[in-house]
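Lay summary. Proteins are chains of building blocks that fold into shapes, and those shapes determine what they do. In this project we predict the shape from the chain. Here is one chain we studied, written as its sequence of building blocks.
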Amino acid sequence: MEYDYFTINFFPLTGIAFLMIFLWRNSYLEKQIRRLFYSIISLILAELLIYNLELYLSAIHSSRFMLTLATALGYTIRPLILYLLISLIIRNDERQNIKKVLLIPFVVNMAFSFSAFFTDLTFYYDIFSVFHRGPLGWTPHIVTIIYLLSMVTLSFAHTNKPNKFEQIIIIEITLILIVGTLAESFFSSYIVLRTAITASLIFYYMFFQSQIYKDEIIEKHIEQTKMIERFTLQMVTALAGTVDAKDSYTNGHSLRVAGYSKEIAKRLGKDENFQRRIYYMGMLHDIGKIGIPDEIIHKTGKLTEEEFEIVKSHPIIGEEVLKNITEMPNLYYAARWHHERYDGKGYPDGLKGEEIPLEARIVAVADIYDAMTSKRSYRDVLPQSSVRSEAVKAKGTQLDPELADIMIEMIDEDKEYKMREHYDK
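And here is the predicted shape, written in a compact code that computers can read:
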């Protein structure tokens, strides 16, 4: 019987080349997964080489020892490939112990395959190098079916988001292997069809598995990013709370300023990244007050000129605290410049108009609004009408006109004067 060596080798080698390129171009895969892929590649290459050797030895009527060795190795490698595929399926599963159990059929298969050197129960070659199956010749195929059924079962019982497309691919591999096994057993077609199509399906499945794994990495990255954001927010909130706690009258001030600032940025049309950044800036705009003596912070009477100069140093202290946070290099903007005035009469640098960073101008509006709507040691909360009037007066002098208009719009929408309560959370 003549065999088409090109057909036998083309599809598996094409699949191997495809996967090697895929692994080379996708460096995100973890080492463990890459090792599994490379192991499967090596085993399929080994089975293909052994099968070609088996055909060659049979054609030249080689010794029965070499033919038996080649066939036993082939029978041993096939279930091992399936075992590694199962390892991919359950890589993130809690059922890792099943891998130990599934090694048992592999060991049994290997024992029966190599028993052909001592007995004719599994298979044997006659003096003409013709293959014959013994009474236990079905053992390698039964083991293959065990692994195939395990693959299907584990895929459908997968606890981590079962995927219909993944299950279809596994069923395809199972059917092709079963058909190939029957063809080899009953029609003496050996593994030509099985080698070609199965290799292609295996690599197709591996490609799909790697795509799932990529999605898993993206999900993990998103979750880690969210966790970092939560941690950052908790740290920022803790720092802001430390500052606000210095004065019972300003408790919650930073939280409200952050909320107002974010809302102003949103109405200004800024994206979510800017809104998140301005929120952090609002939370930390008064961080420099940690360097101001408590007796000045708590003083109920009018500050002396010297004491006021000390208070005016808190923007500079705030910048010193925040400027070395490289992951958010502009975080100090509001801390440094939220007391600048649009007309240039503010401090500490006397910046004017758009010389003042936008973030600082936004926080300045929010800061002034909260100061007017909060109870202080020297006065009660101002009426909403007074707050609105002061915001109008401050347009173009103390505050950026456009941002002041946004705040006035927010005041007008706050019919029941409860905006402070909304952001005081």
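What the prediction tells us: The chain has two domains: 5-221, 245-423.
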